[in-house]
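Q&A FORM
Asked by: J.P.
Topic: structure of Rhodanese-related sulfurtransferase

PROVIDED:
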Amino acid sequence: MADLSQEEWSSQLESDNNALILDVRTQEEVEEGYIPNSIHIDIYLGQTFIDELEKLDKTKNYYVYCRSGNRSGQACALMNQLGFENAFNLEGGFMNWQGEVVE
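REPLIED BY: S.T.
REPLY: Here is the structure written out as tokens.
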């Protein structure tokens, strides 16, 4: 797992042909806006969250975010335990995101 600054996350994501964006916030948070092309799986779903992660392609590079960076950090650590090699946490999360947003 790697914590990436907003700038590192954006530039690495832009040049990564094997990338998927994962939003681990609640549905209510997602409804306030989200990063385009992201997959949403709420980390608060517990076992369901793990079950949904298990369905994902572990060979992809995952760029994970939440509101502030805490839950996404936990999600990245969990993903590493489940066998995902590349999970990148967005430091500062969505509330500091300067890039494109879908509202």
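FOLLOW-UP: The first strand starts at residue 2 and ends at 4.
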